[in-house]
Amino acid sequence: MQIKTTRMDAEDAKIIYQETAGLAIITIHRPQAKNALTANMWDQLAKIAVNVLDNPKNKVLILRGSGENFTAGSDLKEFHTISLEQAEEAFIHMEKTISIIELLPIPTIGVINGPAMGAGLELALACDIRIGSEKAKMGIPVGKLGITINNKFAQRLVSLIGPSKTKDLVYTGRIYKAEKAYKVGMLNYLVEEKDLVKYSIRMGKLVASMSPASLLAVKSSVQECIDSAPSLWPSSTPFVDKNDFPEGVTAFVEKRLPQFSRKTN
């Protein structure tokens, strides 16, 4: 079995891309920071995802994290040194990258080998199938940071776990352990850690053996059902709140609880 490997290097991080037996495999590699994605890594991830289709032999994309994490999401320490406008642009770019993964015309499998938090959870939910080990954890603690979740992210969550559980997850900042994530539908499969890689490759090969026309048709139809859900809220809501976000990020960097003083109307 021949494996082709490409590394997209940043200063302290890598997006590793491999091709083997009809499978395109992307690995987020920044273990020293729980695989948190820098702005440069989001950019590299987008470029690689687009290029997956350059090889017609690629039938399935597998997305995973190295070491003991899937990804902690965006590197919040970067946001401590930039303006609100730059932060907003960074989140917009992040969302575009996640949408590229979601809308690829081939099946995608997320391998959740550890925590998938914040934007990491959104990236996992953008995959068609999610396979997790008992070390998987999934959460979206945006309430501690003054970050909003946009309509697209909300649609992904609601389509999997329903509106009530979505609100509870965000309102409380709770983190689902693997068994809970499996029970509510965030994970399609839950396997032992030692079997995770082998199981994921086997699943990828199984899916790759199916009719490409059938796979594309069902993926397109399901996506159309999700996208057609009506929204009562404006889609132009900023990703970051101008009052709460600076305090949330500062508190994160200083490793303390945030003190949000602004009252909502």
Automatic annotation (TrEMBL):
Keywords: Lyase. GO terms for molecular function: lyase activity. This is Enoyl-CoA hydratase/carnithine racemase. InterPro entries: ClpP/crotonase-like_dom_sf, Enoyl-CoA_hyd/isom_CS, Enoyl-CoA_hydra/iso, Enoyl-CoA_hydra_C. It comes from the Bacteria. One of its GO terms (biological process) is fatty acid beta-oxidation. CDD domains: crotonase-like (cd06558). Belongs to the enoyl-CoA hydratase/isomerase family. The keyword GTP-binding does not apply. It comes from Psychrobacillus insolitus. It holds the Pfam family ECH_1.
